[in-house]
C-alpha cells in the first residue's frame, strides 16, 4: 500500500532510498520497494543526479533564488531543450517544484511574468502588499511568503526588547497582544515527552507494520505505568516519524449482491448486537484469504465477542470441510462446561453443510447466520481480519499474531486490558 506523500521521511528512510538509487533503481522500483509515491521517487532521483546525496537527505534547507537564476533555469528547460534534472544541476536548484513553477510562469508570459511573481514575493517579505492584492486578515507574511507564527514574533520582540527598544512599540508593530507575548515567554516551546521515545519504539516494533496511537497509549498506561494522554502519544509518534498505514476502502467498487432471504431457514440471532456479558456467550467465525509464497492461505478463526479473544483458529491451503473439522475440534476443547453460546457466521457453503449444522447441535451451540449480502451482520469478526492485515501480515506466521492478539494487544472496549486478562478477570468474578 502506498503511503501519504505528505509523510515526513526520517534520515534512516532517506538513506535506504539513497542506497537503492546508487544501485541503479528506477522510480517504479524505488516506489514499490519503499511504498512511496512515484512522484517522490522520481523527485529523489532527480535531486541525486543534480545536486548529489545532500539534496536527497534534505540538506541545505530552504533556498532563495534571484530573478536571473529563475529566468535562466526556466529558459533552459522550456526553450533550450534541457531536461529538468540538467537544468537543476546547471543552476543549483534544490527543488523540482520550484523549477516547475518557474516554467509555468515563463510559458505564460516570459521573463516579465516571472518578474511580476518575484515582485509579489518580495512584497510579501517586506510586508508591503502590491496594489490590488489583499492579504488574509490575521496572517503575517514571512520570508518567501511563509507565515510567521506568534511564537516566532514573540521571540523577535523579546530579542529587540533586550536591546533597549520599547516593548509597547514592538508589540504594536508585530501585531501581538500583550497577553499573547507574555504567554509565549512563560510557555517556551519544548518537545512532547521525549522520555517516552524508547517505550513507544518498543511497542511499535511488536508488530510488523506498527500500530496506532491508541494502542500505544494503552500499553504505556497499563504496562509501563505512564500517565500520558492519547493526544500526547500522537504528538510523540509524529515527532518520531511513526505512522501506521491503514487500508482505505475503494470508493469506485460497491457490493451488489442480492439482499434477499436465504440460508435454509437459519435465523440471524445477533441482529448486529455484538455485546456480550461474559465469555463464550456470543462467538463469530468466518474465512479470509491471504496471498502467500506459492499460492494462497485461508484463516478460519472463532472470535469471542465478550473477551475479544480468538478462542480457536485454523490455517489451511484450502477452505474445505477439513479445515472446519479441525476448527470445531479446537473449539470443543476450549468450550467450558455448561456453555450454550451463539456461533454467528455468514452464509458460506461451509456453514450450510449438514455436517456443520449437526456438529453444532451436538456441541450445544446455537447457529446464527447473516443475511445474504450484509457483511455488516458479521462486522465483529470482519474487524479482526482488518487489524490482522493492517498491523501484522507480511508473509509471517499467523499463529504468532494470534498469540499477540490474545496476550499483548490491548482493547479499548476492555478498558485497556488484553483479551486474556479480561477472560481471567471474568472467570475470577
Which helices and strands occur, and which strands form pairs?
Layout: H1 11-22, H2 27-34, H3 38-51, H4 53-56, H5 67-78, H6 84-91, H7 96-126, H8 150-162, H9 167-174, H10 178-186, H11 197-204, H12 213-222, H13 230-240, E1 282-285, E2 288-292, E3 295-304, E4 310-316, H14 321-334, E5 342-345, H15 354-363, E6 366-369, H16 379-392, H17 398-407, H18 419-428
Parallel strand pairs: 1-5, 5-6
Antiparallel strand pairs: 1-3, 2-3, 3-4
Question: How many β-strands, per DSSP?
Answer: 6
Give the overall pLDDT as a whole number: 81
Low-pLDDT segments, ≥5 res: 1-7, 123-138
Helix and strand content put the structural class at alpha/beta
Can you tag this structure with a few keywords?
429 residues, alpha/beta, 6 strands, disordered N terminus
In words, what does this structure look like?
The protein has 429 residues and is an alpha/beta fold. The chain is 48% helix and 8% strand. The protein is built from 18 helices and 6 strands. The chain has helices at 11-22, 27-34, 38-51, 53-56, 67-78, 84-91, 96-126, 150-162, 167-174, 178-186, 197-204, 213-222, 230-240, 321-334, 354-363, 379-392, 398-407, 419-428; strands at residues 282-285, 288-292, 295-304, 310-316, 342-345, 366-369. Strands 1, 2, 3, 4, 5 and 6 form a 6-stranded mixed β-sheet that branches. β3 (295-304) and β4 (310-316) form a beta hairpin. The chain is extended. The model is unreliable at 1-7 and 123-138 (pLDDT under 50).
